[in-house]
Amino acid sequence: MKLDVTTLDGGSAGSVELNEAIYGLEPRADILHRMVRYQLAKRRAGTHAVKNRSDVDRTSKKLYKQKGTGNARHGAASAPQFRGGGRAFGPVVRDHAHDLPKKVRALALKHALSSKAKTSTLIVVDDLKVENHKTKAMVERLGKLGWSSALIIGGPEVDENFGRAARSVAKIDVLPVQGINVYDILRRDTLVLTRAAVDALEERFK
Prior knowledge:
Layout: E1 2-6, E2 12-17, H1 20-23, H2 29-42, H3 102-118, E3 122-125, H4 135-145, E4 150-153, H5 160-166, E5 172-175, H6 182-187, E6 190-194, H7 195-204
Parallel strand pairs: 1-3, 3-6, 4-5, 4-6
Antiparallel strand pairs: 1-2
Helix pairs in contact: 2-3, 4-5
């Protein structure tokens, strides 16, 4: 698969050959869905908690005698049905992450890349080097390129000026190639890869 390479100024910088095994697959929604659920579940804090019956600081003395009062049988005042008692079946601190095979995760990334290639929303740029870190200049540049919602993937390291200029722009995410992931690819309309990112992904999937 051959794709034209552009520059940040909108000019042409030749073309690049994309591997069909990475960018030419038929996207499967079920695999992408599994991967997105895996990512979102893994990043949940899981710090939600309430006081259950054993955590409430109330007397454990029996409220009244077992028989003869005509009332229901009760023990400690920390029971959930009493005001001030513990919460029944409340949330506890836990990890929401679940397992997903490594091969499925790798396949999901290929399908995410292929989905962008299939819909012609995959763009390859020569590099991300800019002269200054002014956000205003970056907004004008991105507007001319038509990147209103984009995930921009650089090489092993993102140009410092570009990263600083783009970090305040809404719906523009900039990551090094090590940080590429399925969720961020799918949540933005356009995926922008540098030549270095394309080479790194080729090497990664060998």
